[in-house]
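Inverse folding, one chain.
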């Protein structure tokens, strides 16, 4: 995956012009509670994840990329931070191992990360026997059973040279 160029100067220029962060625009619309209270509460994110996200917004850097990739992927998805989302998807792709493959597939599905989902499915397909023995796979089977079909669909569509469709048999 190619991480997009940093547009920090453009984004800070938007901040100056609009006097608040573009990703939070909807929260400051006149009919929203945040606009009436002159304060914003974010309850669905840990403080350290929020701090990391804000660090990225202001600096274009994500120093704790490897430590909180899954939480930051959710934040980047929610607040439409495309560059951050790509950076974290890239970090998750490089951390694909047997034990994490199912967890990463779940994250990719939850946060519309199609390329990450494809890479997870490909990894699972190449290591299916081993991945099926992991605790994360067993957890995914019970919590997100629809992803099992996604994970094994590519395997089912592979043509086996020894398997001949029944229509091709000639009865004599």
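Residues assigned per position:
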């Amino acid at each position: 995956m190619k991480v997009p160029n940093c547009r920090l100067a453009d984004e800070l220029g938007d901040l100056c012009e609009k006097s608040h962060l573009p990703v939070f625009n909807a929260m400051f619309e006149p009919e929203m509670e945040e606009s009436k209270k002159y304060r914003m509460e974010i309850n669905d994110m840990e403080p350290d994840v929020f701090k990391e996200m804000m660090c990225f917004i202001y600096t274009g850097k994500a120093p704790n990329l490897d430590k909180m990739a899954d939480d930051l992927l959710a934040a980047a998805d929610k607040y439409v931070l495309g560059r951050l989302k790509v950076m974290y998807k890239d970090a998750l792709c490089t951390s694909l191992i047997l034990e994490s493959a199912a967890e990463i597939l779940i994250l990719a599905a939850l946060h519309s990360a199609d390329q990450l989902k494809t890479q997870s499915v490909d990894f699972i397909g190449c290591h299916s026997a081993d991945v099926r023995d992991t605790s994360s796979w067993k957890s995914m089977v019970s919590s997100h059973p629809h992803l099992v079909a996604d994970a094994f669909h590519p395997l089912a569509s592979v043509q086996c040279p020894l398997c001949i469709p029944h229509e091709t048999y000639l009865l004599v």
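Residues 65 and 88 are 7 Å apart (CA to CA). The chain is about 60% helix and 0% strand.
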